[in-house]
Each structure stands twice: as C-alpha cells, then as structure tokens.
Amino acid sequence: LATGPRQNNVIFYEIRTYDIKPAKMKEFLEMVNKHIHFRTAHSELVGFWYTELGAMNKVFHIWKYDNFAHRSAVRQALANDKDWQGKFISVASPLIEKQHNEVAYLVPWCELGKPPKEGGVYEWVTFQMKPGGPALWGEAFRAAINAHINTGYTRLIGVFHTEYGLLNTVHVLWWNESADHRAAGRHSAHEDARVVAAVRDSVRFLESQQNALLIPLQCSPLK
C-alpha cells in the first residue's frame, strides 16, 4: 500500500460473500455453474469459490468494474435480464441466508495474478488494521507480504484494500498447490528469520486476522 495514488483510480473490484443455507450448498453451487454465463455476459468475473476450511457454507466471488458508472449500468441490465432473474435469482435467493459486499482496489504495488496451473487451493486472508490507513501501516504490511512471497512456497494472486465496507481492511488472496503444501510452507516460514521479523513489525498495526481455505468452482476463471 502507499500514501500516494492507487495503482488505478478507476478500476475496482466488488467482493461478495454469501452465507448459504447448510442443506442447500450443493444445490446452490450447481446452479452457479449452470447459470453463471447469464451473469458474466454483463461484467467480468475474477473468481468464484466456496469455503472448505475456516468458515462453513460460504461462497466468495469477485467482480471487476471499469468505474462506478459501469457497475450501475450492469446492475440495471441485470435487473432487466429475464434469463438471469428467472433462471437464477428467483431460484437461488431462497437458498441464501445472508449477503455482504465490499468495494476494494488493488494496492498500487500489486497486479492481479494467476496461478501457474489449474488445480490447487486458494487462501483468503482478511487483515483488520488499526485506523489510520496505509500512511500508518502500509510499508510494514507490504514488507510482511513480500517476506512470505520470498519464501517461494506460495503464490500471491491479489491484495485488495477496501473503499466501501469495513475500512482499514486488507484482503490477501494466495494460491497453493494443495492444503498440505501450504501447511509445509507455513511451517518453514515460521522458522524463517526474515518472515518472523517482517511479521513482528507489521503485527503492531493489526487488530484482527481471519483466513479461509477456498475451492474454486468449475466456472471460476481463477481455478
């Protein structure tokens, strides 16, 4: 993160989190895979995942928008899309217990990445930082992220800083070959003096931290 301009002052990402009724998760995921093409006809889907560990019966999906006018136009078009409303929304809505969305920007020093191959698992880590924004904690946070990257056991996909939602929140999306590969890498990182030092400096600004292991849907561009 930085105290100066964002990487791009226009493009942003909407992060949506849905809590699905426990008995309806399989049905919901099948519907998404079957009908998501009606939704992606209107705007770009970055990724769609369901949680395996760290949270139960949740799905995460990320959408890219050129600007806020673009999002407004897409939302209007979706409201008038009979296929989307009739084949997905009307059927899927009763399966959802709760919805949450955030608007976030990629941090200036991060471009949206891709895994080296299909398969593997994703880790979604949410950091709630102390009030004050990147001017207070940005450099220390970036150093901690880079320290993990430099270990080589994990692949950074994206770092998102919230603009709407809970402020001073940073979401980091990682990719690993498997849950076991991630576990082994974390164990090694905890014994790496460079990682320990960087994390110790960054944690001074940390309020809370939460993570989840994500599995991509068949329809997810990131998979």
UniProtKB/TrEMBL annotation:
According to the UniProt entry, the coiled-coil residues are none
Give Gene Ontology CC terms.
mitochondrion
SUPFAM superfamilies given in the database record: Dimeric alpha+beta barrel
> Residue ranges of the NIPSNAP domain?
13-110, 122-221
Q: One Pfam family this chain carries?
A: NIPSNAP
- List GO BP terms, alphabetically: mitophagy
What top-level branch of life does the organism fall under? Answer: Eukaryota
Q: Which InterPro entries match?
A: Dimeric_a/b-barrel, NIPSNAP, NipSnap_domain
**Can you tell me which family this protein belongs to?**
Belongs to the NipSnap family.
State the protein's name. Answer: NPS3A protein
